[in-house]
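> Could you send the Small-conductance mechanosensitive channel prediction when you get a chance?

Sure thing. Input:
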Amino acid sequence: MPSIDSLLQQTMSFIPLLITLIMVFVILSVAHHWLINKHADAGNEKLFSRQLIMLGLTLVALLAIIFALPISESSRNQIIGLIGLVISGVFAFSSSTIFANLLAGIMLRITKPFRTGDFVQVGEFFGRVVERGLLDTEVQTEVRDLVALPNTFMITHPITVTRTSGTIISTSLSLGYDVHHSRVESLLLEAATNCQLSDPFVHIVELDDFSVVYKISGKLEEVKSLISSKTRLNREVLNVLHGNEIEIMSPSFMNQRKLPDDSKIIPIKPREEVDQAIAEVDHVIFDKAEEAEQKEQHKELLQKQLIELNDDLNQADNKEKESIKLRIDNVNKKIKALNTASTAEDQGE
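Output:
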């Protein structure tokens, strides 16, 4: 029968473990409250770094509990080795899916190749970025659908990002050798100018057997109207060339038609051209991406205001501090309202 001293000694050996468990519970609870619970409506984009911190704290807490166990050093090393083996196995089995996408998401946040609202081309997918998630990136396509692209797909394919400061749009067409290239070039430049494209230029792309391939390009300053501007450029090219008696027709069709040689196939322009309001097409197609970009910009503006107000608070006297604190509370409420609205919309989708 064990003596009282041995029982007391065994009980005392568990005291460090008990203290460690209490400290781990308190620290993890406080950290979870400040890092996660207080920002639960921030969405995956803002919670990503906080979740990584909680994961690191949990692993450290687990190691602290193992070191506090009243066991021999060899047994402790075996437990640590077993946990390391389990973690390595989890990473190995999930490396092609969850873990790989997680690492890809971290890489995209470090390199920052694009932002919310940018036009991107990844493989065969083209559209505007709606959200950069923890495991995938959501893109709104030209047909208004939302496509969730895994982050591994994003980093294994070249990403073409349309610059917000402006991009080059272009269109190509083939014309016969009977029209001099200088006349075609001047008319194509006129069409690009009518579309309000800056610095337009014309390339003679190719000299085919029966036609010349021209390409008219110009810089579009307002990239949000990218889709409608391409349509407008094509329309202006048709209007300008047809208005100047230049025929756009396949050479094979020209050789086969039974018409007089001086006859031209040019559609008759209506007296009043119907305005198709194509400028509104972009807002209809990329509505969610537009909202996401505006909210992102609004949040950044509020964050800057918050930093400025905190600086003013540190330098203000007692009379001004109360009013500055009220303004800080109002800014925080606006940020929280934006985060709550974003979370509600994501759940509604």
